[in-house]
Specification:
about 15% helix; alpha+beta; five-stranded antiparallel β-sheet; 2 helices; about 300 residues
């Protein structure tokens, strides 16, 4: 690498390294049509992290526990708790606390004794392929404590230490039809800051995005509820510890708020990209030093 290239690489690195600090000043939530998968049931290798409700259940069930036949592969920087033992409890499962931001991550009733439920093994639900390559009949997690035709902030997961500054989340809806299927007319995802432990209360610096294919809500466009699964992509940035990510579906008439599952993929931070760029430039310089003399020797001989 010559002197001019080295100086350029250092300047680029410094600019990109400072970018995450600026990005963290505010949350950002964007629906991304380019990476959304419409009428698609194959999510093999889509992202390293995922959760799906009541997957590949050989028995038809409704009103099952949230963790019944769940498939879970989530990072250690997310708190997402579906076990019934945590309903009405804190993160440890020992102290009473019926907020949805500690312990059980879905909606609980006022007394903290009953939580949201799942549906699985239904004949009219799509067979889908998960990011790990496994295939089976999909299910749904539903806000069974809500009413039909309602908006619900029913699924909340909390950001823990070690999270990336940005990540993409695909939320899967429209994965079936017929008896017991819960159809959705809108889908929004939000990220918001909190006041931290113990209750993680407050909604600070809220950013929210909605799926709007062709400027329409999913219930207003045929592809949004034609019975073949859609994985709607959202990009969340400015992520910090103690933030809360909320999935907010609005159910169609006669249905409860529900989703089939979600997939998450971290987005490389600018500092990581800068390191890769520096590595590429360095390799280029090294190659010139190695290859150049060989070509010169070839010519002179």
């Amino acid at each position: 690498m010559n002197r001019k290239s080295r100086l350029f690489a250092i300047i680029v690195f410094q600019i990109l390294l400072s970018a995450p600090t600026a990005l963290r000043a505010a949350h950002l939530a964007v629906w991304d049509p380019a990476t959304s998968l419409v009428d698609t049931t194959n999510y093999n290798n889509l992202g390293p992290y995922y959760w799906f409700a009541n997957f590949a259940n050989s028995s038809a069930v409704t009103g099952a526990s949230a963790d019944n036949h769940e498939v879970r592969q989530l990072p250690n920087w997310i708190h997402y708790e579906t076990r019934s033992a945590f309903i009405g409890k804190d993160d440890s499962g020992t102290i009473s606390d019926n907020t949805s931001r500690t312990g059980f991550s879905l909606v609980e009733n006022a007394s903290g004794t009953v939580g949201d439920t799942s549906i699985g093994g239904q004949a009219g639900f799509n067979s889908v392929t998960l990011p790990n390559g496994s295939t089976g009949t999909s299910g749904e997690i539903t806000d069974s404590l809500s009413v039909t035709g309602n908006t619900s902030s029913f699924l909340e997961f909390r950001i823990l230490a070690g999270a990336p500054d940005s990540f993409r989340i695909w939320v899967v809806t429209d994965n079936g039809a017929g008896a017991n299927f819960q159809d959705q007319s809108r889908l929004r995802v939000s990220i918001r800051g909190t006041a931290g432990a113990p209750l993680y209360a407050g909604d600070l610096d809220v950013a929210e995005a909605e799926v709007l294919p062709n400027g329409l809500r999913i219930g207003q466009t045929p592809t949004g509820h034609d019975g073949t699964a859609d994985a709607w992509s959202f990009l969340l940035s400015g992520v910090t510890t103690d933030d809360v990510v909320i999935i907010r579906p609005t159910s169609a008439t006669g249905s409860l708020p529900a989703i089939s599952g979600f997939i998450i993929a971290p987005v490389p931070e600018p500092s990581s990209i800068a390191m890769l760029a520096l590595g590429a430039i360095g390799c280029g310089g090294f190659r010139r030093r190695e290859v150049g003399p060989r070509l010169w020797n070839t010519v002179t001989h």
